[in-house]
From TrEMBL:
Protein name: Adenine DNA glycosylase
SUPFAM superfamilies in UniProt: DNA-glycosylase (SSF48150), Nudix (SSF55811)
Any one GO molecular-function label of the UniProt entry: purine-specific mismatch base pair DNA N-glycosylase activity
Naturally occurring in which organism (per UniProt): Qipengyuania flava
Single GO BP term: mismatch repair
Family from the record: Belongs to the Nth/MutY family.
CDD domains in alphabetical order: ENDO3c, NUDIX_DNA_Glycosylase_C-MutY
InterPro entries per the UniProt record, alphabetical: DNA_glycosylase (IPR011257), Endonuclease3_FeS-loop_motif (IPR003651), HhH-GPD_domain (IPR003265), HhH_base_excis_C (IPR023170), MIG/MutY (IPR044298), MutY_C (IPR029119), NUDIX_hydrolase-like_dom_sf (IPR015797)
Length: 340
């Protein structure tokens, strides 16, 4: 089955590959590792459609890894705002600096894995796509396709090991990068989560899940534990067309980002409710946000014509609030206040 699956899939990819700004067309020399790495890190956060404008803005501003390495971390964090998982933006800068210091990206999966913040998936993807190395690249799309091809019905996460073994068995030595991208494309456009389009699938004949008649039930996912609900308050402090912003502590949730002051909620605890200064606070409503480890209900309260709090921070023009690089949670809070 191994040779057959990769041959059929590469043939399909030659005709149906998605045209994406970080890709090289099938069968052409590999793309720039910087662009592959950057796109893969961004794609771990969100969809291709959401990543495209970020990728274009990043590569326009920082066209190569040396330019990104030389950028102030604050600028990169602000450009990343809206993509989520801000620790990844910090790691992006760290990794760019390590790569620039060594004179370029290493070419093997093992050496790539040693770069700061570069995980197993990204190392495999960059090695395969940018350096044509044989590497087993398994993202959520590939996981789904492989679970179905081999009818692996162990629930994820326990299924990850057999899925990896099966993915390894079908990964070819030649064109491993195109193969990885072909699997990603198949997963995103044909073997989709809810309604796989088996009639259009080049692998339909060999697919075990299809033979069972209900491929969409795979992969099986272990039931999710409900996320703890945290509560906190954010403070909109305004005077003369400006709002008071703070810089969050360098480590921890949304670390290093500009934000509204808050009452110290975290992934592990509710906030104390304590305001950064005395005075009368009006409610602007509640913002709900879901993080990896917790859900948050953030009450947003407002004080106008206020003095500066007795703490570090800066007055920021409200009509330029979109340029502050606020993470999504605080951007939502700002929108709530401004809509009111
Ligand atoms: S035949 Fe259907 S279930 Fe199997 S890989 Fe193709 S699209 Fe997915």
């Amino acid at each position: 089955m191994a040779a057959t699956v990769s041959d059929i899939l590469l043939d399909w990819y030659d005709r149906h590959a998605r045209d994406l700004p970080w890709r090289a067309p099938p069968g052409t020399p590999p793309p720039d590792p910087y662009r592959v790495w950057l796109s893969e890190v961004m794609l771990q956060q969100t969809t291709v459609a959401a990543v495209k404008p970020y990728f274009e803005a990043f590569t326009r501003r920082w066209p190569d890894v040396a330019a990104l390495a030389a950028a102030p971390e604050d600028d990169v964090m602000a450009a990343w705002a809206g993509l989520g998982y801000y620790s990844r933006a910090r790691n992006l800068v760290k990794c760019a600096r390590a790569v620039a210091a060594r004179g370029g990206f290493p070419t093997t999966e093992t050496e790539l894995r040693e770069l700061p913040g570069l995980g197993a998936y990204t190392a495999a993807a960059v090695a395969a796509i940018a350096f044509a190395q044989r590497a087993v690249v398994v993202d959520a799309n590939v996981e789904r396709v492989v679970a179905r091809l081999f009818a692996i019905d162990t629930p994820i996460p326990a299924a990850r090991k057999p899925i990896r073994v099966a993915a390894d068995a079908i990964t070819p030595a030649r064109r491993a990068g195109d193969f990885a991208q072909a699997m990603m494309d198949l997963g995103s456009s044909v073997c989709t989560a809810r309604e796989p389009k088996c009639l259009l699938c080049p692998l339909a004949k060999t697919c075990k899940a299809r033979a069972t008649g209900d491929p969409a039930r795979l992969p099986v996912k272990a039931p999710k534990k409900p996320k703890p609900l945290r509560r906190g308050r954010a403070f909109w402090i305004e005077r003369e067309g400006e709002v008071w912003l703070v810089r969050r502590e360098g480590k921890g949730m949304l670390g290093g980002m500009r934000a509204l002051p808050d009452d110290g909620w975290s992934a592990r605890a509710d906030g104390t409710g304590e305001a950064p200064m005395p005075g009368t606070w009006e409610s602007a409503g509640v913002v709900r946000h879901v993080f990896t480890h917790a859900a948050l209900e953030l009450s947003v309260v407002v004080q106008r014509n206020a003095p500066a709090p007795d703490a570090q921070g800066e007055w920021w023009p409200i009509d330029r609030i979109d340029d502050a690089g606020l993470p999504t949670l605080f951007a939502k809070a700002a929108r709530l206040v401004l809509a009111g």
